């Protein structure tokens, strides 16, 4: 049995029918929705992480490509968990480069918010930060593809955790008027993370842009602020 079939079999055993029925609704897979056509086995994320931990050191990138290109959501997410482990566990720059190339060349399969959010800052964001390769993220921020834009914005989480906010602010501002709610949420989330590290930085940004922010973005951004301050922004009193 191939290692891909082995991993798929391990995930199949962990399938929960009730989850398989619920996930398509949760991830908006209906016609015209952002996850249109995605299919699910019904495997919980902790179980997928456990499978990834068991197999990451044994599977090649060629075989991982087969897993990541699967129609099943859990196959793709497990493949990304494996890829994260391959990236984090090695100290070999050549292997890290191979993982980055693999990730970039398979972005078409990183096509739902959990796939994006679970992987992009741990792989691409970290690599860009450690190697001063911001243009890798910038090119995605400038893309017409919504998932690419979300990868860019959420990818800057690694920068925010290190106390660097400029790239996040650049991407959020450049995509502030994006039409999709998933971008409004991502932008607001990353602004909130900036506020967690440096509230003054967030306040300064909000004072410039809060009146033109989509409401969802604003609500996400101010979620951790004091209630009185939150209400001032929500009611336009600033």
Describe this structure in words.
By secondary structure, the protein is mostly helical. It has 15 helices and no strands. Helix 4 runs antiparallel to helix 5, helix 5 runs antiparallel to helix 6 and helix 9 packs parallel to helix 12. The mean pLDDT is 97.
SSE arrangement, N to C: HHHHHHHHHHHHHHH
Number of strands: 0
- Could you give the distance between the termini? 64 Å
Residues in helix, %: 55-70%
Given as residue ranges, the uncertain stretches (5+ residues, pLDDT < 50) are none
General form: globular
Q: Proportion of β residues?
A: under 5%
Task: Please give a handful of descriptors for the protein shown.
single chain; 238 residues; mainly alpha
What can be said about this structure in brief?
69% of the residues lie in helices and 0% in strands. The chain is built from 15 helices and no strands.
